[in-house]
C-alpha cells in the first residue's frame, strides 16, 4: 500500500478501509449508494472507490498524477474523469456532497460512506482472500500483472508488438490475469499510461492527451459465467489539453481561489467603471448537504459533537485559526468574491458593501455569524460534563485560539471577537470553579486572557484598537454593522457621540483599505491547504444546522438565539449549581 503524502493524508478518514479485497468490500456494501475507499492489491495498492449501484458493486480506480514539489502547490492531483483535486478527501467530499456521478457510463452516485471498524490493516496479508484456482498461480505470474509504471516496464511484451507500443494497446489475450479477476473482455486504461500522458515537469502538466477513449461503453460487461464486472473503466479528461499546439504546455493546476483571484481582480480594476448595484448579495453558501451532518439531522447530535471534538483536537490553534480566517474572509466577502457578485453589488469587496444601503443582508449575516460562533465556543466548554480539569482544558483551548487569531498572528479580528464572546458569555463566566482551575493549572493562558485579550476586546468594541492591514488580515466590523443596523450606543450622550464618530470614521477607513486587507489575508493563506471537514464545521450554515437541526434552522434568528441561550443556561447550572 502506498504511503499517503502531503495532501493525500486520508488514512484517518472513516470511509478509508486500507488494504481490502474486492470480495470483502462487496460484502460491506448493502444498499445502493453505499461506498468505501480501499487499497486494491490488483491495482498495486492504489485507492479504489467501491460503490453499490443498481444492485451491483462497481469499482473505480482513482488516478493519481504526481507533480514536481513546489511551495504552495500539491504534490499530486487525484482524478476520476472530470475535475482534478489536490487530495483524495477533497475528491470524495465533492462527489458525495454534490451527488455527482462517479463515471458518465455507469451513472453511479456515492451517497453513504461505510465506516471502517477498527484500525487499518497494515498489509494485504492480513486480508487473505478465499482459496481458489486464481490464487494458486506462482508469485512471478502475479508480479507480471502489476499496474504500476515500474511493473509495466518488466512486463513481457509479445513478439508481434511494435516497439514503443504502450500497455493500453496490448491485446486482451496477452494481458496477464489478476488474482481474482475474471477474463477481461475489455482492457481498462492502466495507470501507467495515464501517468505517461499526464507527465509533470516543473509543476506543469504537458499537452500530451490521453489515449482516445473507445466508442463503446466504458463499463466492462460480465463474462459468460455471469460474474459481476471487476473494474469500471474511467476516461479522464484533462482541461485545456485538446487543441493545444505542440510544444506548448498546459496551465498549472488551479490554485486555490484565495490565491488565484488576485490577477482576475487586477484585470477588472483596469477596465472598471461605475455600475449601479442590482441586488443585495450574500456570501454565505447555500445549505447543501454537509458531509458531517447529512441531509437531515437533529439538534446537537452526540455522534457529530464527538466527531467535532476529535477534529479540533487534531489541529493545533494556529491551524484552526487559519481555517477560521479562510471561512471568515469568505463570509465577509473579502476573498472568494465572484465576478458576478462584484457586478451585482457595484463594489469589489464586502468591506465596502457593508457600508452601503444595499449591504443590509450582508450586515445581518455577519451579526448572525458572530453570535453563532460564540455559541459554538460556549458549547465547547459547557458541554464538558466530565472532570473539572476537562472544562479548564477547554477554556485554555479557547484562550490559545484567541491568541492565534489576534493581530500580528492570523489577524482575524471577527474570529477573535467570536471566541472572546464565548469566554465572556454569562453562562461561561459564572463557572467560578472552572476559572479557578484554569488559573491553577494553566496560569499562562489565564494571564494572557486577563492582561492581553480582555483589554484588546474592550478597545475593539469601542471602535478603537488595531486596524492596520500589516498586522490585521480581517478587521473587526461589528461596531459599524450594529450602528448601521440602528442599534443605539450605550453610555452617556457625550461619550456615545464621540464613539459614534469614531466608529463611522473607522468604517470609512476599512472600506478604503479593502484591497490592502485582501492582500494581507491572501498572504497569510498562501500555501495553506485546509482540512475539508474542519473548514465545513466553521461555516455559518453548518453551525446553524448543528445547533438547531435541519428543521429548526429555518426559524427566525431571534427565536433560535433565545432557545439556545436557555439551553446553555441549563448546562451551566448543571455544571456548577447556584448555592
From TrEMBL:
InterPro entries in the record: Ras_GEF_dom_sf (IPR023578), RASGEF_cat_dom (IPR001895), RASGEF_cat_dom_sf (IPR036964), SH2 (IPR000980), SH2-Ras-GEF_adapter (IPR051853), SH2_dom_sf (IPR036860), SH2_SHEP1/BCAR3/NSP1 (IPR044102)
Cited SUPFAM superfamilies: Ras GEF, SH2 domain
Region Disordered, annotated ranges: 104-177, 202-222
Residue intervals of the Ras-GEF domain: 316-578
Keyword Magnesium applies: no
Domain SH2: 15-114
PROSITE patterns noted in UniProt: RASGEF_CAT, SH2
Pfam families: SH2 (PF00017)
CDD domains named among the record's database cross-references: SH2_BCAR3
Alphabetical UniProt keywords: Guanine-nucleotide releasing factor, SH2 domain
Keyword Nucleotidyltransferase included in the entry's annotation: no
PANTHER family from the UniProt entry: BREAST CANCER ANTI-ESTROGEN RESISTANCE PROTEIN 3 HOMOLOG-LIKE PROTEIN, SH2 DOMAIN-CONTAINING PROTEIN 3A
Protein name: SH2 domain-containing protein 3A isoform X1
Native organism: Balaenoptera acutorostrata (Common minke whale)
Top-level taxonomy: Eukaryota, Metazoa, Chordata, Craniata, Vertebrata
Gene: SH2D3A
Amino acid at each position: 500500500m502506498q504511503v499517503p503524502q502531503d495532501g493525500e493524508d486520508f488514512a484517518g478518514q472513516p470511509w478509508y478501509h486500507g488494504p481490502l479485497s474486492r470480495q470483502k468490500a462487496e460484502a460491506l456494501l448493502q444498499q445502493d449508494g453505499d461506498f468505501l475507499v480501499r487499497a486494491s492489491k490488483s491495482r498495486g495498492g492504489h485507492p479504489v472507490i467501491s460503490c453499490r449501484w443498481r444492485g451491483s458493486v462497481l469499482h473505480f480506480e482513482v488516478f493519481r498524477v504526481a507533480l514536481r514539489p513546489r511551495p504552495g502547490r500539491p504534490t499530486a492531483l487525484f482524478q476520476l474523469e472530470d475535475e482534478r483535486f489536490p487530495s483524495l478527501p477533497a475528491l470524495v467530499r465533492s462527489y458525495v456532497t454534490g451527488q455527482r456521478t462517479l463515471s458518465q457510463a455507469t451513472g453511479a452516485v456515492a451517497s453513504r460512506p461505510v465506516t471502517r471498524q477498527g484500525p487499518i490493516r497494515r498489509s494485504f496479508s492480513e486480508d487473505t482472500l478465499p482459496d481458489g484456482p486464481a490464487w494458486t498461480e506462482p508469485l512471478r505470474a502475479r508480479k507480471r500483472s502489476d499496474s504500476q509504471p515500474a511493473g509495466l516496464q518488466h512486463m513481457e511484451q509479445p513478439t508481434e508488438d511494435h516497439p514503443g507500443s504502450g500497455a493500453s494497446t496490448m491485446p486482451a489475450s496477452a494481458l496477464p490475469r489478476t488474482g481474482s479477476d475474471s477474463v477481461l473482455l475489455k482492457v481498462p486504461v492502466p495507470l501507467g499510461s495515464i501517468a505517461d500522458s499526464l507527465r509533470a515537469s516543473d509543476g506543469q502538466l504537458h499537452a500530451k492527451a490521453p489515449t482516445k477513449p473507445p466508442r463503446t461503453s466504458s463499463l466492462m460487461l460480465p463474462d459468460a459465467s455471469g460474474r459481476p464486472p471487476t473494474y469500471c473503466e474511467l476516461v479522464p479528461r484533462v482541461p485545456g489539453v485538446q487543441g493545444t499546439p505542440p510544444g506548448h504546455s498546459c496551465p498549472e493546476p488551479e490554485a486555490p481561489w484565495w490565491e488565484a483571484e488576485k490577477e482576475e481582480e487586477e484585470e477588472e480594476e483596469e477596465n472598471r467603471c461605475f455600475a449601479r448595484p442590482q441586488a443585495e448579495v450574500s456570501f454565505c453558501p447555500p445549505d447543501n448537504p454537509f458531509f458531517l451532518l447529512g441531509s437531515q439531522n437533529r439538534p446537537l447530535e452526540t455522534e457529530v459533537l464527538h466527531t467535532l471534538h476529535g477534529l479540533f483536537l487534531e489541529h493545533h490553534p494556529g491551524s484552526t485559526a487559519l481555517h477560521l480566517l479562510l471561512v471568515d474572509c469568505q463570509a465577509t466577502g473579502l476573498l472568494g468574491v465572484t465576478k458576478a457578485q462584484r457586478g451585482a453589488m457595484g463594489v469589489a469587496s464586502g468591506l465596502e458593501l457593508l457600508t452601503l444601503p444595499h449591504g443590509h443582508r450582508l450586515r445581518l449575516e455577519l451579526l448572525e455569524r458572530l453570535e453563532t460562533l460564540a455559541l459554538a465556543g460556549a458549547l465547547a466548554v459547557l458541554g464538558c460534563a466530565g472532570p473539572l480539569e476537562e472544562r479548564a482544558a477547554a477554556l485554555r483551548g479557547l484562550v490559545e485560539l484567541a491568541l492565534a487569531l489576534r493581530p500580528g498572528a492570523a489577524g482575524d479580528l471577527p474570529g477573535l471577537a467570536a471566541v472572546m464572546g464565548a469566554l465572556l458569555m454569562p453562562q461561561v463566566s459564572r463557572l467560578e470553579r472552572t476559572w479557578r482551575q484554569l488559573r491553577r493549572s494553566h496560569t499562562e493562558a489565564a494571564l494572557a486572557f486577563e492582561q492581553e485579550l480582555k483589554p484588546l476586546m474592550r478597545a475593539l468594541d469601542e471602535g478603537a484598537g488595531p486596524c492596520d492591514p500589516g498586522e490585521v488580515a480581517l478587521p473587526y466590523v461589528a461596531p459599524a454593522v450594529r450602528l448601521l443596523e440602528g442599534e443605539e450606543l450605550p453610555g452617556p450622550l457625550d461619550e456615545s457621540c464621540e464613539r459614534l464618530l469614531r466608529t463611522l470614521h473607522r468604517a470609512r477607513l476599512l472600506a478604503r483599505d479593502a484591497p490592502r486587507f485582501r492582500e494581507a489575508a491572501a498572504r497569510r493563506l498562501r500555501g495553506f491547504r485546509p482540512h475539508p471537514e474542519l473548514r465545513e464545521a466553521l461555516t455559518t450554515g453548518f453551525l446553524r444546522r448543528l445547533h438547531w437541526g435541519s428543521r429548526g434552522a429555518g426559524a427566525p434568528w431571534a427565536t433560535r438565539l433565545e432557545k439556545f441561550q436557555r439551553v446553555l443556561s441549563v448546562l451551566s447550572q448543571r455544571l456548577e449549581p447556584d448555592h
